[in-house]
Specification:
globular; 81 residues; 3 strands; 2 helices; three-stranded antiparallel sheet; binds zinc ion
């Protein structure tokens, strides 16, 4: 469950220096959204093949508390099982 790991993701982001102001608005505050963002992975750039996905990756979303800019980070890279 995401909730069980949320604090570990926040700690990992801070340890990796994901604490700097956002590039667009200069705000320092961020919030980790409550859940995973599933992104599909495809091997062919041809968009007509988008249904033929190879799988997906789970990411966590870090939102700027000022402007709502959303960045995603691979969950597995931040916290190993
Ligand atoms: Zn912002």
């Amino acid at each position: 469950m995401f909730e069980d790991k949320k604090e570990k993701y926040i700690t990992a982001l801070k340890e990796k220096g994901v604490t700097k102001p956002y590039q667009r608005c200069g705000n320092n505050g961020f919030e980790l959204l409550n859940g995973y963002f599933r992104k599909t992975v495809q091997k062919d750039i041809n968009t007509s093949n988008i249904i033929d996905t190879e799988g997906y990756v789970a990411t966590v979303g870090v939102m700027c508390t000022n402007c709502g800019n959303l960045n995603t980070h691979l969950a597995e890279h931040l916290v190993k099982e």
